[in-house]
Every structure is written in structure tokens, then in C-alpha cells.
Amino acid sequence: MGAKLKVVGWVTVGAIAGALTSLQFSATARSTPSVGLPLEELQQLAQVYGLVRANYVDPVDDKKLISDAIAGMVSGLDPHSQYFDKKSFGEFREGTSGKFVGVGIEIGMEDGLVRIVSPIEGSPAHRAGLRSNDLITRIDDTNVRGLTMDQAVKRMRGQPNTKVVLNIWRKSENRNFPVTIVREEIRTQSVRAKLVEPGYGWIRVSQFQDRTVDDFARKVEELYKQDPKLKGLVLDLRNDPGGNLEGAIAISSAFLPAGVEVTSTKGQVEAAQFSYRAVPQHYLRPGQADVIKRLPAALKTVPLVVLVNEGSASASEIVAGALQDHKRATIMGGQTFGKGSVQTVRCLAGNVRLDECPGAAIKLTTARYYTPNDRSIQAQGILPDVPLDETAEGNVFAAFYTREADLERHLNNGDKAAEEEATKAREAERKRLEELRAKRNEPFKPLPDFGSPEDWPLQQALNQLQGKTVVIAKAAAERKAQANAKQP
């Protein structure tokens, strides 16, 4: 119980602001520690407050001024810290339940526009054909450029059975088009699974939410019921933006020996220093049943491949890093997003429990997390053991993903040279793909659905499990050939 008693508030490890974020657990909030106050700067703040009230062209609301000041203070720290007013905090908590009314997309920001990270499978947006990396330029009659993430989200959410018109810019096809979507309650299904070949299973976790661990356990049991002697398993974490930390610990624990470290956190205060291990007390909430212990024992030893890509972030990176460091799985795919920070949610309404918080709260970055081998993946990500291209012809969209290192004010990971080298490599790849696209007479074809027979990385993962030849990424193969050529 030590871990949960130490943590102040709710801890989140979601990928980017606006993506569906889940909460780890609730605890009693404590009072803010006393700190020395910079009196001169506070006097300046009070002076600006007075000048705005007295001289602004229109009367301003005092509460709005204070809220905006707090929001600016918090959002200026890093891309993941955020201030919530009463309404936005309610919307934030709504996202943790895995259901809300809207169009069904996970989003980020790119060049002032809303970028679709991934349409939620089975949602109205998914059925309408929206794709990862589509850009939303207008929502009904409102231009997106100039809106904050929260403002864009509010315009896309609404009442069930109401319509919203999204104007889409699809870079891969160089075209702009409107899509009318009818809002509905989105019940996200974060886990899918099937036998892709006799003896080989595929289980996809698209995000870590409150129900993810239960859904994961049920899907694993269904796979083993279909084939009790599975020869190999593919855990697909591509485009998984993260979410619930305890979910990441639980799913890692399903594959790892009991008691080993899954991840650790380090921050300024003592409460932020902790080692999370593959034990029930580090992933169970009070009163929650331990569904992990009922899973087949064979899950601890079945040959395992984990698929990741540039959209795999945070909680999914924790799982990939833990399985990689313990040599429990072969990590295949693309370099991951690189979101290695932990956020704690604190209520600003006094000493009350967060699940009873009436409004105003902040989500504050309080720690970095580390893999069992003490690797920080912040702004760098998990490097796969076997790099794969998106298609048999090579990468199509990988270099166009926004990653942690691309976000303004992102935390560094202490290795500036490595971060700069990775950024240069991605810029070179992006330039190459832009030149290739300019030479083509037709747009790039969209990538096939994950888990389909045309899913190239999945086919390479199956080849790995079956001892067949794996076609590694073209860029990696070229680097290896160049290195061999330089050897005497």
C-alpha cells in the first residue's frame, strides 16, 4: 500500500494534452508546502492586475483574470501541465471512464490545427473514414487556427444525435473536404484480440483506461480458450497514447515474473521517488479484483513480440521498456513518442478528496519515469530491437508524426546530444519523404488497418515468432551496410 499512500492526488501518464487521459488513483490531497515568496514579482503581478482592471477597453471579470493568470503560469511549464476550471475538470474526469459524447477521436495540435492522433475504433469518426494525421481546419463555422485544444474539444463535443461538420485537410492526399458526423456516446473499446494464424495470437491495446486491464484479461482468456497451446503472441501498442499508469503496471505484470521492477519515478519531492513492481498492491485500486492472477501461467513464458511506433506514448512506453529491459519480449517497429513524465492532479478547493473536488484543479508534471535499467525515455523514446517500416515499400507517414521532442517547452532527458541527433535524423527522413511524395503522380495510399492481413509490421512480427526471415527497416539496413563497408 506504500505507493498509493505516498502519491498526492491522481497520477496520469497520458501522451499529449487533449488525448484521452486516464487517472491512476485518488488519494487525500495535502496542503501546499510553504515556500519563500518572490515579493517583488508578486507586486508586479498585482500591478498588472490593477492596470488591466482599470484601463482595459472593456470591463473584465475578476475571476477570469485570476483563472487566466493561473492557467498561464501552469501551461508555461511544459506541454502536459494544465489548469482546470470547474467545467474543464469535469470533462477531464469524464475521459477517465472510457465514455463521453462526441465524435470519437484522440487529438493533438500541429501548426495551430487539430491533428487526429487516432480515430477511436468503432466511433462515428472511424466510420466516417477519418484517419491518423488528418488535420481539422474548421469545426462547423469556426476556424480551428487560434483555438486552444480545450476550445476545439468543446466544439466537437455536445449532445447525443446532434451534428457537427469537420473540415479535413488530408496531407497524404493533398486535399481538403468536409465531413458531417453525428455525435454519440463513445464507449471506447481499448482492447481487441484474435488468432491471426493457428497457434499465434494478436492482442491490441489502443489506450490505457479504467476498464483496460479487465478487458485485457478477458481477451487473453478468450485467446487461450480458442487455442490453449499458443506458440506466440503479438502485443500491439502502436498509436497507443498512454493513460493509466496502474494499467501499464498490471499488463506488464501479466508477462513478467512477480516482484520485478516495472518502472520507477524520480522528482523533486520524496513522494515522487518510487519503484513500481509487478505486485498487486502496485496496480490494484481499493476493492478491485486482481484479474491478472487468474490468467494462464503460460502467459509468463509464451514467445512475445511487442509492436510500437511513433504514436506509442507514455503508458505504452512503460510496458515496452519494462518488457525490453527484462528481455521478456522483442520490441519491433518504430521509435516511440518519448513521453517520459508523470502528471499529478491536485484539487485547489482545499483539503478534499479529488473524487469529491468541486472544480478548479491543476495537472502538474511532478516526476520523470524510468525503465528498469534506469533509462529515461523523455524526448527520446524506446528504440525497437528490430526496426520495421510501415509498409513493404518503406515508411510513408512515420516521419510526419509529432513527437515529444517536437513540443514546445518539453522536458529534456539529460542527453542533449542524443536528442539533437535523433531530431536531425527525423528531419532528414521527413525531407526524403517530402521529395518522394513530390515525385509521385498519385498520393500515398493510406496504411491498412492494424491487425488486417495487409498489416506489414504484424506480418514481420509473426515471422519473428515463427523463426522466419524478418525484413527490417530500409534505413536501418542501409546504415548497417554502410557500417560494414567501412570495416577493414
Could you please describe the fold and organization of this structure?
Residues 89-157 form the PDZ domain. It holds the Pfam family Peptidase_S41. One of its GO terms (biological process) is proteolysis. Belongs to the peptidase S41A family. Keywords: Hydrolase, Protease, Serine protease. The strands form 4 sheets. Strands 1, 2, 14, 15, 16, 19 and 20 form a 7-stranded antiparallel β-sheet that branches. 30% of the residues lie in helices and 23% in strands. It has helices at 2-6, 39-55, 62-75, 86-96, 124-127, 149-156, 212-226, 245-255, 315-325, 416-439, 456-466, 474-486; strands at residues 10-14, 82-84, 99-102, 105-110, 113-119, 135-139, 142-143, 163-170, 175-182, 184-187, 191-197, 200-205, 232-236, 242-243, 261-266, 274-277, 304-308, 330-333, 341-347, 361-370, 386-387. It is built from 12 helices and 21 strands. Mean pLDDT is 85; it is low at 1-33. Helix 8 (245-255) runs parallel beside helix 9. It has 2 domains: 100-187, PDZ domain (Pdz3 Domain, Roll), CATH 2.30.42.10; 191-481, 2-enoyl-CoA Hydratase, Chain A, domain 1 (Alpha-Beta Complex). With 488 residues, the protein is an alpha+beta fold.
